[in-house]
Specification:
single chain, about 850 residues, 27 helices, binds zinc ion
């Protein structure tokens, strides 16, 4: 076997096989040991893994292997988020069934992952398209239905014409489909919802308790939930006793600046307000125009605000004055009450609208001197506001609400931006929603003993005309579970985010068939101690998984309040300044990389090039530098294996060289441990190991004639073994192979993580004499192995020395290590 270069083509498959066959990473519950649940977000089986996958799985694997060496009982599973549109699109394009396409992709990607040497417990592999998996979320759906947490309603939804399906608000990015990038349209459809809004307060409150999460993710979650406090009250319609328009405002202090009011165009009250046929036509035209737009476009700050003035007027209850009433595109039926009081003085959108429609503007907050601008949204004292004048905004808000409540006109109210989670998809490749529609009984859930409602495989997938399930008579026509009469089965399938909302629970007992998961296993493993995945999931997946976990808790199934204790959001992999993508032609194929340089090099580079949370810039030189480093380690161990094999494990060296080198070894242990523990600074941890290897080569060269063999061998042995133990989590194959080369029988990953010995870290100090022009003028105490530059700097900064040098110029400084600094001056 080559002792010159690391022969990864032989070594890597060998250890992958041994780990696999010995079941080394199989996780078994063990109440006596502390557990560590390490989880990377599972992939969609799109066909091949990419460098982004390599990066995130390498990060997870370092942690899993490290924690095992620290004595934790580690659960590190892998599986497949296997439902979803690409499978169906592939079926439309290539005529291959989504199930076949998905399973082939899984098989291929599993092989790719195995080649990376990841320490997964493959016995726990889960694919969400398996009926044995989705059966359980169908059961939970029925439980949620019973509790009103799942419900059906007709609503205006985001519709992607490309994907032919409904999208959640979270799946619309800048008016476009998050998956296919087509412009999203609005449509009215019947669909199923999960009542995530019932948990809005708790989801928000717990944000502040998730101290292991990145701040920016917490902020995104909070903004998405979007809690706002304010007041809700009615604006009476002038001349229509008993008819009022309910508005919500977060700024009840600004009521005296209300110069008009606005209804969402689709607000149902509009039909009661408009009688005149010409006005009805105008309203219908305006509605048609506005409803073509997406919510995002309607709310965009940078476009003119379209509006339609109605003949009806409303009354400001605070002043008793009548004000005009508009329909405007910038007010949404889905937020608040679908109606607002407009206060252009303190709201920029109202200001823009007031300007465009020549409406009066009243300032109700005193602007600071020299203020130039439009709407004013900062602090200040109230003006032009009747009984609120002179108050701060906060005090005025309270007083305005008290005024409303005292007269029975309104209430304090909390509003959320968060909407219920629309889970219906008019697509085939998803978990069927387990309900039926009976001619007699109406909507009826499937009986639990009939679950799973299995997705039929013999369907025609054309991509046209809604869900392929509607064209499958044997699936659609069924018996009513309640009366036995004729019933039609629901053909909508669930959003795939439902499957990813609980897969981490299934991993706890993936083969359990008496329930969603085995209670004792979930109690042992949950919560996930470290979750790792892309920031693109900061809102969608993470919020849904948190919600679903809370629902399961309230169903009495789990004890945890939150699924993920800590979260790491890794950066992207970029090359030539852009995210790797086929269209940019800057893709590095992990298979090719592993074939040419090996998995350990691929892992090393993806961990070394940047800290995990930052973007990683791919460069060939860096990758090759990683390969050279591993070859250096390989050669050093082979060159010294005979020398160190039988040496004692550790000694206290007698020489300065031996002590200094041993200190480097133990300092490296401390640095690498700190870097892993503190914010996963794997890049600096690897840099420290590289420095240690440099120090080994330097010690080897310098110690031959200075250190006795009886000291050199044990010191080198400790250094080599420590290097391998520290390197193991990052580059497991080479570390494991070299470990066995040294004569160890067992796996390196069953060894404890090395500990820095305090005694070894202690620095010896020496006294160095400082001469100025040949005369001793001072003495310094320095570390025994301080570099000459440091000693020189200390000498020149010494007060006694500077006073002797005075105004003369330093011509020359000579440092004799550990003994003397001689400073020569000139006139
Ligand atoms: Zn789409
Ligand atoms: Zn029935």
């Amino acid at each position: 076997m080559s002792t010159d270069r690391y022969p990864f083509r032989d070594i890597e498959p060998k250890w992958q096989r041994i780990w696999e066959e010995s079941g080394q990473f199989r996780a078994v519950e063990d109440a006596r040991r502390p557990k560590f649940y390490c989880l990377e977000m599972f992939p969609y089986p799109s066909g091949r893994i990419h460098m982004g996958h390599v990066r995130v799985y390498a990060i997870g694997d370092v942690l899993a292997r490290y924690k095992r060496m620290r004595g934790f009982n580690v659960l590190h599973p892998m599986g497949w988020d296997a439902f979803g549109l690409p499978a169906e699109n592939a079926a439309i394009e290539h005529g291959v069934h989504p199930a076949i396409w998905t399973h082939e992709n899984i098989a291929y990607m599993r092989r790719q992952l195995r080649k990376m040497g990841l320490s997964y417990d493959w016995d726990r592999e889960v694919a969400t398209c398996d009926p044995a998996y989705y059966k359980w979320e169908q059961l939970i759906f029925i439980r949620m239905l019973e509790r009103g947490l799942a419900y059906r309603k007709r609503s205006t939804v985001n519709w992607c014409p490309g994907c032919q399906t409904v999208l959640a608000n979270e799946q619309v990015e800048a008016g476009r489909c998050w998956r296919c990038d087509r412009e999203v349209a609005q449509r009215d459809v019947d669909g199923w919802f999960f009542k995530i809004t019932a948990y809005a307060d708790e989801l928000l409150e717990w944000c502040d308790r998730l101290t292991g999460w990145p701040e920016r993710v917490i902020t995104m979650q909070k903004n998405w939930i979007g809690r706002s406090e304010g007041a809700e009250f009615d604006l009476p319609v002038a001349g229509r006793p008993g008819l009022g328009i309910r508005v919500f405002t977060t700024r009840p202090d600004t009521v005296f600046g209300m110069t008009y009011a606005v209804l969402a165009p689709e607000h149902p009250v509009v039909d009661q307000l408009v009688g005149d046929p010409a006005e009805r036509d105008a309203v219908a035209r305006f509605r048609a125009e506005v409803l073509r737009e997406s919510e995002i476009d309607r709310l965009a700050a940078d476009r003119p605000k379209r509006g339609l003035r109605l003949s009806a007027r409303v009354v400001n209850p605070f002043t008793g004055g009548e004000i005009p009433l508009f329909l405007a595109e910038y007010v949404l039926m889905t937020y608040g009450t679908g109606a607002i009081m407009a206060v252009p003085g303190e709201d920029q959108r109202d200001w823009d609208f007031a300007k465009a429609h020549e409406l009066p503007i009243i300032e109700t907050v005193k602007r600071p001197p020299g203020w130039v601008g439009e709407a004013y949204t900062d602090e200040g004292l109230k003006i032009n506001s009747g009984f609120l004048d002179g108050l701060t905004i906060q005090a005025a808000k309270r007083k305005a609400i008290d005024w409303l409540v005292g007269r029975g006109l309104g209430t304090a109210k909390v509003n959320y931006r968060l909407r219920d989670w629309g889970i219906s998809r008019q697509r085939y490749w998803g978990a069927p929603i387990p309900v039926l529609y009976c001619e007699r009984c109406g909507m009826v859930p499937e009986r639990e003993e009939h679950l799973p409602v299995v997705l039929p495989e013999d369907v025609q997938i054309s991509g046209k005309g809604g869900s392929p399930l509607t064209g499958h008579p044997a699936f659609v026509s069924a018996r009513c579970p309640r009366c036995g009469g004729r019933a039609r089965r629901e053909t909508d399938t669930m959003d795939t985010f439902v499957e990813s909302s609980w897969y981490f629970l299934r991993y706890c007992s993936p083969h359990y068939d008496a329930g969603m998961f085995e209670r004792s296993a979930a109690e042992y493993w949950m919560p996930v101690d470290q979750y790792i995945g892309g920031v693109e999931h900061a809102v969608l997946h993470l919020l849904y998984a948190r919600f679903y976990t809370k629902v399961l808790r309230d169903l009495g199934m789990v004890k945890v309040d939150e699924p993920f204790t800590a979260l790491l959001s890794q950066g992207m992999v970029i090359k030539d300044g852009a995210k790797m993508s086929k269209s940019k032609g800057n893709v590095v194929d992990p298979d090719e990389l592993i074939r040419s340089l090996g998995a350990d090099t691929a892992r090393l580079f993806s961990l070394f090039a940047a800290p995990p949370e930052k973007d990683l810039d791919w460069n060939e030189q860096g990758v090759e530098g990683g390969a050279r480093f591993l070859n250096r380690v390989w050669r050093f161990v082979h060159a010294h294996r005979e020398e160190v094999r039988d040496a004692p494990r550790s000694i206290v060296p007698a020489t300065d060289d031996g002590r200094a080198f041993r200190r480097v070894v133990h300092e490296t242990v401390r640095r690498v441990t700190d870097d892993i523990e503190r914010d996963f600074h794997f890049n600096t941890a690897i840099a420290a190991i590289m420095e240690l290897v440099n120090a080994m080569y330097a010690f080897e060269a310098a110690s031959l004639d200075r250190v006795a063999a009886s000291e050199r061998a044990p010191v080198l042995r400790e250094a080599i073994e420590t290097t391998l133990l520290l390197l193991g989590p990052f580059c497991p194959h080479i570390a494991e192979e070299l470990w066995s080369t040294l004569g160890h029988g067992g796996s390196l990953f069953r060894e404890p993580w090395p500990e820095a010995e305090p005694a070894a870290l202690q620095r010896d100090s020496v006294t160095v004499v400082v001469q100025v022009d040949g005369k001793v003028r001072s003495r310094l105490t320095v570390d025994v192995d301080s570099p000459d530059e440091d000693v020189e700097r200390l000498a020149l900064a010494d007060e006694k020395v500077t006073s002797w040098i005075g105004t003369r110029r330093v011509a020359k400084v000579v440092v004799v290590p550990r003994r003397l600094v001689n400073i020569v001056t000139r006139g």
